[in-house]
Amino acid sequence: MQASDVRPLPVLKETLNYLLNLLDATEHPFDVVHDFVFDRTRSIRQDLSMQNIVNDQTIHMFEEMVKFHIISHHKLRSCSSKRSFSSVHYLNMEQLKKCLISLYALYKENRNSNSIYKNEPEFYSFHVLLHLGSNSQPLGESLSLWLGRVPSLILKSKEMCFARRLLRLFRMGNYKRFLCTTTTEASYLQYYIIEPYINEVRALALSCVNYCGYKLHPYPIAHLSKLLMMKELDVESFCNACGLETSTDERGNKFLSTKQTNFHYPKEVFPSYCLLGLEHF
User: Fold this and answer.
1) Which residues form the SAC3/GANP/THP3 conserved domain (predicted)?
2) How far apart are CA 23 and CA 72, in angstroms?
3) What are phi and psi of 151, to 5 degrees?
4) I want to staple 259 with a disulfide (CB 3.0 to 4.6 A). Which of 26, 141, 192, 215 is the partner?
5) Are 77 and 195 in contact (CB under 8 A)?
6) 249-258 pLDDT per residue, tens
7) Domain annotation for the chain: domains and CATH numbers
8) What percent of the chain is modeled with pLDDT above 90?
């Protein structure tokens, strides 16, 4: 490749802005738009890396590309009912991790000793939240080692404290505080990373209610709605997806009979039930 083949920074910035504006287009399904933008943003990152451009503009561009992959992570979930997007999800997450690695390196190279970039805490929190739901190591090392290299100003930020607290609640199985903390503290980008695990936490809560409840006292669906932070109609659907039956009394009140033995985590992907309090995301 010749030097003339590499696009200068102003051209790359203009191209990225054009691509990101396509995300709001409605002429084509989002997965089609995603594939188009996906390939071209990867090419932009390659051009930036080849020129070794390290400045505030580059940082902003990488932040925008990280946002693209996180928003795609959210929007592609609604496309999965049409056909399988497991490979698309996987590739999108791989590129998100690579973008974060590059962005963290840019932050480090440009950081002054006593200051951090405005968005650094939130973007560092994404790495912590990527540890939800599995024992994987997104950037190839343990989280404790990674945290040991994070500047103290970032570690003490509200964004990082939130992410670390939420991960701890998830691993402890504290479903009530997990859901409440997400509702009150998550930014929309943080929520998009957390979203796939919301229903996993709800299933844990439903399991506890089912196995720990008193058989002669069915659990009101209205109470479950508040506990799981979801609409009552969605609660019924969710219970059924977990193998549990609901009933209705003569007054029209709906209940979950506890001590049912056929509870299971759904074998297929959960429908994307909204989290009450975050409907605007």
Assistant:
1) 2-247
2) 9
3) -55, 145
4) 215
5) yes
6) 889 899 999 9
7) 3-198 (1.25.40.990), 199-281 (1.10.10)
8) 69
